[in-house]
Specification:
The structure is a single chain. The longest helix is centred in the middle third of the chain and has 11 residues. It is globular and about 50 Å long. It contains one helix and eleven strands. It has one domain. With 131 residues, the chain is mainly β. It is 8% helix and 45% strand. 19% of the residues are buried.
Length: 131
């Protein structure tokens, strides 16, 4: 997941949000990342979990820097990788949505040019035991 639009507003550093996970044999896994299970009830840092080789090559390679309009000019804004968190609970359709707490948030925006789902990127998440 990568932001296609970045907001000028800085998110609150901490808060509650929602994240999708793949569930296999009772364990939570990232949808587009390595095969490591995510612990529930413990703070976890984004840098300990890496995207798959496909995502690193074909997705992150071109979208860590996002093109935006600022003062009538096109500029490129970059952001470091992290946990992508939905601000509102949405219909995840394929994967279950879990409530999480986050801290050290540093950017917010949207993952699609066509939807208005606000997304926050943070360094750490805490998955609540709610599913």
């Amino acid at each position: 997941m990568c932001l296609l639009k970045i907001s000028k507003d800085v998110p609150k550093s901490t808060g509650v949000g929602y994240k999708t996970f793949r569930v296999d044999k009772g364990k939570l896994f990232g949808v587009l990342s390595d095969g490591k299970p995510r612990p529930v009830g413990k703070w976890i840092k984004a840098r300990k979990y890496t995207p798959t080789r496909f995502v690193r090559k074909y997705v992150l390679g071109s979208t860590k820097r996002v093109r935006i309009k600022k003062d009538g000019k096109t500029v490129y804004v970059g952001y470091k990788p992290g946990w992508h968190i939905y601000k509102n609970e949405i219909d995840a359709s394929v994967y279950p949505m879990f409530t999480i707490r986050y801290r050290k948030a540093y950017v917010q925006g949207h993952m699609s040019l066509y939807t208005d789902y606000p997304v926050i990127v943070a360094e750490e998440i805490y998955i609540l035991e709610d599913k």
